[in-house]
Write a structure and sequence with these properties.
With about 300 residues, this protein is of the alpha/beta class. Helices cover about 45% and strands about 20% of the residues. Strands 3-2-1-4-5-6 form a 6-stranded parallel sheet, sandwiched between helices. A 3-stranded antiparallel sheet has the order 7-10-11, covered by helices on one side. β8 and β9 form a beta hairpin. The longest helix has 21 residues. The two termini are about 35 Å apart.
């Protein structure tokens, strides 16, 4: 297999992402974790599943960074998970230490990789990764927007009783409680939901999207979401490996558009072989612009705390 994807963090999100990559047969998979035996066991389990997937992917688990060398894509999921009552921002200091360390070490061995950052608070961790790796801005991308838009799509489909396949959604801003779901740019077969759903119900769907992660944390009580985050991450990995040029809501380093001078935050992004191929600037109305600015400021307030 010519391509290699390294997943750093063998917990639920990391292992599920590794499974999706392995099942696709798009690349070999290296699963890294500091817990001795855990990534090795999960990778062996995946290797034994590959004949059933019809996949030729080679899966390897490791506690060392050596086997991650020359990766095409590095996915960072390492860090602490949310618990009931915690916000994504509560994880800031603990996860900054973890992400900074693994990002720096893995990047040295894979200088040409594209890095997908999943660990929360995601936009801030993406900016930290960009700083410690020294990579070009196009090579480091946060995942959150795809997950947020997928949740919005699911809730819209439930509301209207239509197939989720016919719903496209757009979410801007940070991957947190001030994210900006965009009803005007959210459609069912090309028809904006502002034409299909009453404003009060749209507001309720927007709020449920903003608290979608916390809703799952509250239900699980001992963990956080991982199926949808892993599926969102895999969509990005696939777009990069296959040079798909997909327009997806991600968190790249935004400079020179949307009036921003350099911050990782959610915007419509074209993903391909080189990572960020293009950032699409939407024409926002006054309220959308204000909400976006507020969300960006929330991200900036956290980046200042950790000095990035």
């Amino acid at each position: 297999m010519e391509k290699k994807v390294t997943v750093i963090g063998g917990g639920n999100v990391g292992a599920s992402t590794a499974q999706l990559v392995a099942a696709s047969g798009l690349a070999d998979v290296v699963l890294f974790d500091v817990v001795e035996g855990m990534p090795q066991g999960k990778a062996l389990d995946l290797a034994e599943a590959c004949p059933l997937y019809g996949s030729a992917s080679v899966c390897k688990g490791t506690n060392e960074f050596g086997p991650t060398a020359n990766s095409d894509v590095i996915v960072i999921t390492a860090g602490l998970a949310r618990k009931p009552g915690m916000s994504r921002d509560d994880l800031l200091m603990a996860n900054a230490k973890i992400v900074g360390d693994v990002a720096e070490k893995s990047a040295k061995l894979s200088p040409d990789a594209v890095v997908v950052v999943v660990t929360n608070p995601m936009d801030v961790m993406a900016q930290l990764t960009l700083k410690v790796t020294g990579f070009k801005g196009s090579k480091v991308i946060g995942m959150g927007g795809i997950l947020d838009s997928a949740r919005f799509r699911a809730f819209v489909a439930m509301e209207l009783g239509v197939s989720v396949q016919d719903v496209e959604a757009q979410v801007l801003g940070g991957h947190g409680d001030l994210m900006v779901p965009m009803p005007r740019f959210t459609t069912v077969k090309g028809v904006s939901i502002t034409e299909l759903i009453h404003r009060d119900r749209i507001d309720a769907l927007v709020q449920r999207t903003r608290t979608g992660g916390a809703e799952i944390v509250g239900l699980l009580k001992t963990g956080s979401a991982y199926y949808a985050p892993a599926a969102s991450t895999f969509q990005m990995v696939k777009a990069i490996l296959l040079d798909e040029q997909r327009l997806l809501p991600c968190s790249p380093y935004v400079k020179g558009v949307y009036g921003l001078d350099g911050v990782c935050v959610g915007v419509p992004t074209v993903l391909g072989r080189n990572g960020v191929e293009k950032i699409v600037e939407l024409k926002l109305n006054e309220q959308e612009s204000a909400d976006f600015a507020k969300s960006v400021e929330a991200v900036r307030s956290l980046t200042k705390i950790i000095g990035v």
